[in-house]
Inverse folding.
């Protein structure tokens, strides 16, 4: 009996001992992080000295294994990061997101806007030294659209080309809208004079791939791809590291940065950065406080870049109660987004003032969204046709466990407090979530959208055109449809943007979405890395970087 | 062979026909004599009572937020402080206890008492093809890697399950079936039981096999008693100790499983709180560094509970199996 | 020996059947839910027609039974576990091989540490039986067993990595690097109590046997039989339980530890594969672990038979 008691005492003593040790450590360690010790030398508290000194011209990063390096098929951002360096297309976006020549050195547009004639750069080569020909363009695009390849995005990005539909359905093998004019010229005819066509060509699906390589090694060519981009895949050890090496004979000039090495083995990026093992790192919400503190040594390396993505709540306009615009508006006005950004997210990301993000043509800085107004929200709800007989409402979001919680919890609680409506949160793992959105199963859902190219069509048309497959809110408004159709083929850029701005205002007024936040990348960049730029979209970004240690 | 000293003397009772009741009563008496066991029982009982009466005991709702009061330290209003969005930690802990109570209770009752008893006794006593069938089924179930299967089933079946439960709710007018989280618990405990009964059944089967040869059983068979009667009257009481020990050991494991499942996202869904949720929220480095209480509070409660289960299991083991022959 | 050899043979014959049932169940469950590897991988572009096309290309729109038949045929006749839907240019053994190797070594480390610490503690406790040190030693580790891995890892990381900077907070630098220390410790902690108790019990038995030998000389026959009987009785379930629990605990703990510490092992990969609905990978991993489990079970059962004659009598008909 006293034995058993001692046993329990043993357990408790263990706890106390641990607690004592922890307290001692906290007290002695000063309760601070790593480098904020008083002696000021940044490396003082790092236990590891810098890894073997890296050469100048080599950039070291942490990364994830790409899933699949086929530009026509790959869908995840992890793969995209490498694909945009290894492969390229006819046109590209520069750091300011302006359209620039790439494999095509110039192009002419026909007066009716239907035909683009691309003149290929005569120096453009694949990384094995072979010159790029119009046949390569034809092959790459037809392959991307072909059902055998299994690309999901091709019909969206290449679907405006005449004959694309037939190739995608397997009815034809060739694109009727493609015509090879001569050794270095190819003409592309669209089904309508779409102004955003060139932007779509900046997306990986339209990148060029090597026919010879694919035909000789159909299943494994992606392990050592031969692309037209500024960097070659030099080495890839699964789970260990990836090295990209500059392709000096690139037609746009040899890249200044010679090598990029990604460490794939997992671990803490920030710690590696502090230890000097990597040169650039992202900063997560957890570490943001520290990094933003001016007295912290890391603060001088801190940079912030906006990202073109929007976090929003979408309302299914086909189901109750959100078929009533008053209800949608009430729910929109009942959320204090600024407060949530402040308290839950530490203001790490900006509150959305519209649907279009900064940097997208057509963006305006004024706040076009419904302001926080709980009284008005209550009134609207009472006026709606569901007053007093609200059905049960569920907010769906994708996520794993409690980690996604705080923002959504806060939103739900505000609805409860301000509207008296109890909303249930349903977390679904991503497969189910996206599938169910496709099927229109949810009343409302919390999700995000990332721009693929800097044109308002990529959001307003794709997501709100009534017949669009991406229209997850099932929203159907003939006026907006008409405006969108008009904007597709409007040749004058200013007029186009004005149309899109009107559409944006109308959509916000109709409260189809509740836009929550835009996004910001927080990062640290070592001082010896120059011209490193985070881009709002995933595009190539290493070419002009220099590293001088 | 016991850990805390052999209880000699009484062990000479082996071989004598044991009648169910007196064994239980005797064991209970002996158990209660051990101080430590009593303490454990009290701790466990306190926990379960806290869970059962959560709505009455908790000062706040588990989801009531107050963004102005995030990460507050302990105070009279909030003895355990508040979390990131201002929810009272003590209330959340109490309601989490309720979740654990429900999940462990249901799972143990089904997967660690009911199923092992029935299946283990059948397999051991009847033998033959029933034995083989139960054994093979158990082997198949047990050979599936538990956690991945749980994640898989939860991921793929949950949406359908939610829909069925929704229909059930509408059909039977059991309102609140889904929204109260009951449907959630059901899925979890169902899956845990499905994969959990094998170990217990196997142990019981072994025991039954041994008992089968005992003289009094053969005598009962000879006198024409039916299988179910023999099982009920003679074998079950002798198998009870194993069941109880097994169940008490399992309780701790199930509480841990729930935590793991919630961390991975397939456990109890928000907004229903559970210790898994609290621990997951308190574990990230930034939170832990500046507000360690958010992790320490739920972790301590869980650790204390499981510790109590472990110790109790030991004591039970002592009390009940030292008489084994 | 026909009994024993025949028994082994009969058990082994069940292996393919078990694998078949397991694989069929897994096959069905993975395909039952909404979402396919194609639509999940697709990210934010939803094009149901395109999904249908690609799913057709991979034969995912056929009836499940038919798909299963094709799968079995491919595995059994060609040894081809199928393509991974996520990493499409690699074969499944190529992908999961290294990961299993990482997890296995980590598990081995943890297992060794558990015994390395547990046995001395157990023996120590046995020698101090009767004093307070005995239950205290075991009790401490029993307490550690009660703390979930999800708690120990963040706390260890906080103390040893964030504050003291003695150890890296995760990642995988190779099997002999400092990055292996934290996960090994975290994984081994829960198992130590069980091993310690086992060691303690064994030590006490041998202590008692000495006592018994002298006791027998004094003619206490009944006691002898009792002790030996009881020891055999309790040792076997304890042994199987302990080893079984450690392995199971390791497997499950591994998933959390790997995820929290960013270790590229199979635990984390299973989770990613389930989320990504990578059917063939899930199938392969489940089959592998089921096969290993069945074989391990067979070994343990054989040990049981050898040790405990009663079971042998009841078992082999």
């Amino acid at each position: 009996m006293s034995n058993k008691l001692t046993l329990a005492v043993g357990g408790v003593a263990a706890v106390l001992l641990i607690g004592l040790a922890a307290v001692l450590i906290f007290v002695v360690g000063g309760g601070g992080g790593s480098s904020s010790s008083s002696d000021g030398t940044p490396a003082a508290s790092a236990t590891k000295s810098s890894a073997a000194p890296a050469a100048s011209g080599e950039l070291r990063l942490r990364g994830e294994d790409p899933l699949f390096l086929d530009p026509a098929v790959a869908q995840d951002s992890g793969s995209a990061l490498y694909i945009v360096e290894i492969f390229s297309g006819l046109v590209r976006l520069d750091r300011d997101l302006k359209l620039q020549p790439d494999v095509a050195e110039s192009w002419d547009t026909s007066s009716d806007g239907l035909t683009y004639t691309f003149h290929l750069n005569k120096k453009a080569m694949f990384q094995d030294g072979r010159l790029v020909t119009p046949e390569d363009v034809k092959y790459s695009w037809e392959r991307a659209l072909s059902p055998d390849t299994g690309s999901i995005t091709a019909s969206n990005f290449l679907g405006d080309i005449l004959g694309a539909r037939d190739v995608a359905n397997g009815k034809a093998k060739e694109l009727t809208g493609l015509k090879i004019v001569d050794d270095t010229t190819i003409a592309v005819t669209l089904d309508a004079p779409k102004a955003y066509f060139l932007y779509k060509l900046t997306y990986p699906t339209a990148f060029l791939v090597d026919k010879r390589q694919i035909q000789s090694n159909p299943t494994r060519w992606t392990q050592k791809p031969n692309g037209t981009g500024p960097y070659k895949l030099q080495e890839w050890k699964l789970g260990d590291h990836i090295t990209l090496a500059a392709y000096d004979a690139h037609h746009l000039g040899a890249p200044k940065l010679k090598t990029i090495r990604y460490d794939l083995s997992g671990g803490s990026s920030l710690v590696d950065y502090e230890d000097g093992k990597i040169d650039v790192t992202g900063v997560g919400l957890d570490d943001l406080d520290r990094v933003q503190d001016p007295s912290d040594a890391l603060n001088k390396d801190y940079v912030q870049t906006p990202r073109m993505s929007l976090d929003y709540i979408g309302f299914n306009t086909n189901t109750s109660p959100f078929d009533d615009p008053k209800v949608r508006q009430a729910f929109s006005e009942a959320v204090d987004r600024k407060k949530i950004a402040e308290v839950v997210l530490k203001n790490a990301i900006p509150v959305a003032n519209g649907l279009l993000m900064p940097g997208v043509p057509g963006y305006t800085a004024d706040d076009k969204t419904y302001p926080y107004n709980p009284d008005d929200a209550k009134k609207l709800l009472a006026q709606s046709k569901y007053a007093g007989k609200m059905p049960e409402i569920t907010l769906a979001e994708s996520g794993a466990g409690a980690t996604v919680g705080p923002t959504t919890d806060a939103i739900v609680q505000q609805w409860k407090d301000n509207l008296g409506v109890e909303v249930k949160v349903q977390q679904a793992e991503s497969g189910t979530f996206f599938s169910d959105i496709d099927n229109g199963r949810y009343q409302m859902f919390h999700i995000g959208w990332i721009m693929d190219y800097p044109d308002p069509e990529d959001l307003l048309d794709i997501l709100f055109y009534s017949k669009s497959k991406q229209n997850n809110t099932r929203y159907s408004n003939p006026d907006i449809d008409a405006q969108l159709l008009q904007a597709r083929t409007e040749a004058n850029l200013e007029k186009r943007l004005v149309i899109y701005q009107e559409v944006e205002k109308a959509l916000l007024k109709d409260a189809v979405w509740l836009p929550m936040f835009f996004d910001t990348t927080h990062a640290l960049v070592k001082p010896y890395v120059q011209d490193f730029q985070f881009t709002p979209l995933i595009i190539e970004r290493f070419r002009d970087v220099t590293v001088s240690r | 062979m016991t850990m805390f000293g052999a209880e000699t003397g009484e062990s000479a009772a082996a071989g004598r026909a044991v009648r169910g009741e007196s064994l239980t009563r005797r064991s209970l008496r002996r158990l209660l004599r051990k101080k430590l066991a009593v303490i454990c029982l009290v701790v466990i009982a306190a926990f379960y009572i806290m869970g059962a009466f959560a709505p009455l005991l908790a000062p706040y709702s588990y989801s009531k937020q107050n963004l102005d009061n995030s990460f507050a330290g302990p105070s009279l209003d909030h003895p355990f402080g508040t979390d990131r969005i201002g929810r009272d930690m003590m209330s959340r802990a109490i309601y989490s206890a309720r979740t654990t109570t429900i999940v462990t209770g249901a799972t143990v009752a089904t997967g660690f008492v009911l199923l092992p008893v029935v299946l283990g006794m059948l397999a051991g006593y009847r033998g033959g093809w029933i034995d083989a069938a139960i054994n093979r089924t158990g082997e198949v179930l047990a050979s599936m890697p538990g956690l991945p299967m749980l994640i898989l089933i939860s991921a793929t079946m949950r949406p359908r399950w939610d829909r069925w439960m929704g229909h059930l709710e509408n059909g039977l007018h059991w309102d609140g079936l889904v929204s109260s989280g009951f449907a959630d618990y059901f899925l979890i405990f169902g899956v845990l039981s499905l994969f959990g009964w094998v170990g217990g059944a196997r142990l019981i089967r072994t025991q039954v096999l041994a008992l089968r040869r005992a003289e009094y059983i053969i005598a009962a068979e000879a006198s024409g008693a039916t299988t179910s009667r023999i099982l009920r009257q003679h074998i079950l009481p002798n198998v009870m100790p194993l069941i109880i020990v097994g169940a008490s050991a399992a309780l701790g494991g199930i509480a841990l499983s729930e935590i793991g499942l919630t961390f991975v996202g397939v456990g109890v869904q928000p907004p229903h709180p559970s210790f898994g949720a609290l621990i997951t929220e308190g574990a990230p480095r930034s939170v832990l560094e500046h507000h360690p209480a958010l992790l320490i509070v739920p972790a301590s409660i869980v650790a204390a509970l499981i510790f109590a289960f472990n110790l109790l299991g030991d004591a039970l083991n002592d009390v009940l199996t030292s008489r084994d022959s | 020996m026909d009994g024993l050899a025949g028994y082994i043979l009969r058990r082994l014959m069940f292996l393919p059947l078990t694998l078949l049932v397991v694989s069929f169940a897994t096959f069905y469950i993975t395909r039952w839910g909404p979402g396919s590897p194609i639509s999940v991988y697709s990210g934010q572009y939803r094009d149901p027609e395109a999904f249908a096309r690609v799913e057709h290309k991979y034969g995912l729109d056929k009836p499940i039974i038919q798909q299963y038949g094709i799968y079995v045929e491919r595995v059994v006749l060609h040894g081809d576990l199928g393509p991974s839907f996520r990493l499409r240019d690699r074969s499944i053994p190529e992908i999961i091989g290294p990961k299993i190797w990482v997890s296995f070594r980590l598990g081995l480390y943890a297992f060794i540490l558990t015994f390395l610490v547990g046995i001395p503690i157990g023996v120590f406790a046995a020698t101090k039986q009767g004093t307070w040190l005995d239950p205290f030693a075991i009790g401490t580790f029993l307490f550690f067993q009660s703390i979930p891995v999800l708690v120990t890892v963040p706390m260890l990381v906080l103390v040893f990595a964030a504050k003291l900077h003695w150890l890296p907070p995760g990642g995988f630098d190779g099997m002999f690097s400092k990055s292996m220390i934290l996960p090994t410790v975290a994984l081994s902690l829960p198992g130590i109590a069980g091993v310690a108790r086992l060691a303690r019990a064994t030590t006490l038995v041998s202590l008692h046997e000495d006592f018994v030998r002298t006791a027998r000389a004094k003619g206490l026959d009944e006691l002898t039989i009792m002790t030996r009987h009881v020891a055999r009785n309790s040792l076997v379930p304890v042994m199987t339980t302990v080893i079984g629990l450690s392995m199971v605990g390791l497997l499950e703990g591994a998933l959390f530890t790997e995820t929290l510490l960013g270790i590229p092992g199979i635990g984390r990969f299973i989770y990613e594969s389930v989320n990504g609905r990578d059917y063939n990978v899930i199938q392969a991993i489940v089959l592998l672990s089921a096969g290993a489990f069945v074989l391990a079970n067979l070994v343990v059962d054989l040990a049981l038979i050898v040790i405990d004659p009663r079971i042998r009598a009841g078992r082999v008909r």
